[in-house]
């Protein structure tokens, strides 16, 4: 009886188990190294932005006016006495009232005038509409030092020296030109068919602007308001020239009272600066939802 040996054929290459395919990266997905690098850059940028604020707050806790020269000594004697002195023994709340009146008035008037100007140039074709925008741009070329003398003469003739209205109008001369260009670029991105639909429904040009266009322009209005707020909030030259009464000083001018010819109370200046930053931070929080959208919306047309 014969036996036969059956040889088992070697597994062919097609039968070998295939290697598990690598994970396919989705479109727009970053690699791990790129993600770590971007997060590292963002962390460094955040620390760079927050360090001056944190350092200012740290210096405000030093009880002596010369502690900023030896910041290491502050650790053992931190106190909030500087804040108590600023709130109780200075004109801080008078400065707050004056600042709010000037800033809110400038923001309201500036945004309204800039929005109407930008809309008129964007939608209407009247003689000289192109030259109007260039004239507004040219006004931004003059330094403040050149404008102070003629503005002082004009306000003096109008009896608006040392008045909130005078300072508001002066601030608007620097805010409106830029905001008008900003709003004009944003209105260009809103389809013209919306205006035509408003006219078909019987709305006047002002009604179309107020009821249809402005609700769509909230991001642009937020950017214009934010720019107007910060510009008027930190303005020094006009406020220190046109406001003569101590109780009408704004924050920017009030800070100068801590510095004299022979002395500088930098600990009180630091505490006041921290308190001053609170209203600006609150306003930024209110408009932040529309701020990024408004900053980028006017960059392209269509």
Walkthrough of the structure:
- With 302 residues, the protein is mostly helical.
- 66% of the residues lie in helices and 0% in strands.
- It is flat and about 70 Å long.
- The model is unreliable at 298-302 (pLDDT under 50).
First-to-last CA distance: 93 Å
Provide the residue-averaged pLDDT.
82
Order of helices and strands: HHHHHHHHHHHH
Radius of gyration: 31 Å
Q: Which spans of ≥5 residues are poorly predicted at pLDDT below 50?
A: 298-302
Largest sheet: none
Count of DSSP E strands?
0
The percentage of residues in β strands lies in under 5%
Our count of helices gives: 12
Oligomeric description of these chains: single chain
Helix percent reads 55-70%
Form type: flat
Q: Helix/strand/pairing class, anyone?
A: mainly alpha
Core attributes:
single chain; 302 residues; 66% helix; flat; disordered C terminus
Secondary structure topology:
Layout: H1 32-60, H2 81-89, H3 92-123, H4 129-139, H5 144-157, H6 164-187, H7 193-200, H8 205-216, H9 218-234, H10 237-242, H11 251-254, H12 266-297
Helix pairs in contact: 1-12, 2-12, 3-6, 3-9, 4-6, 6-9, 7-8, 9-12
Summed up:
The chain has 12 helices and no strands. By secondary structure, it is mostly helical.
């Amino acid at each position: 009886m014969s036996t036969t040996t059956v040889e088992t054929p070697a597994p062919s290459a097609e039968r070998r188990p295939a290697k598990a395919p690598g994970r396919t990266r989705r479109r727009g997905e970053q690699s791990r190294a790129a993600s770590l690098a971007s997060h590292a850059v963002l962390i460094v940028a955040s620390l760079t932005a927050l360090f001056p604020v944190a350092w200012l707050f740290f210096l405000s806790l030093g009880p002596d006016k010369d502690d900023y020269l030896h910041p290491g000594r502050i650790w053992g004697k931190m106190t909030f006495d500087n804040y108590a002195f600023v709130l109780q023994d200075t004109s801080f709340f008078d400065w707050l009232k004056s600042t709010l009146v000037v800033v809110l008035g400038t923001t309201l008037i500036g945004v309204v005038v800039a929005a109407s100007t930008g809309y008129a140039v964007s939608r209407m074709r009247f003689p000289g509409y192109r030259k109007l925008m260039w004239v507004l741009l040219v006004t931004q070329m003059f330094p403040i030092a050149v404008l102070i003398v003629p503005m002082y003469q004009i306000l003096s003739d109008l009896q608006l020296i040392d008045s909130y209205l005078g300072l508001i109008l002066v601030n608007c001369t620097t805010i409106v030109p830029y905001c008008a260009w900003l709003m004009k670029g944003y209105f260009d991105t809103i389809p013209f068919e919306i205006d035509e639909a408003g006219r078909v429904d019987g709305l006047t040009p002002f009604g179309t602007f107020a009821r249809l266009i402005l609700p769509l322009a909230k991001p642009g209005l937020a950017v214009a308001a934010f720019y107007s707020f910060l510009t008027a909030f930190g303005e020094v030259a006009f406020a220190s020239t046109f406001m003569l009464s101590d109780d009408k000083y704004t924050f920017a001018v009030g800070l100068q009272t801590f510095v004299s010819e022979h002395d500088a109370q930098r600990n009180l200046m630091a505490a006041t600066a921290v308190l001053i930053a609170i209203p600006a931070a609150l306003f930024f929080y209110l408009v932040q939802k529309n701020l990024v959208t408004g900053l980028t919306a006017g960059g392209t047309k269509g």
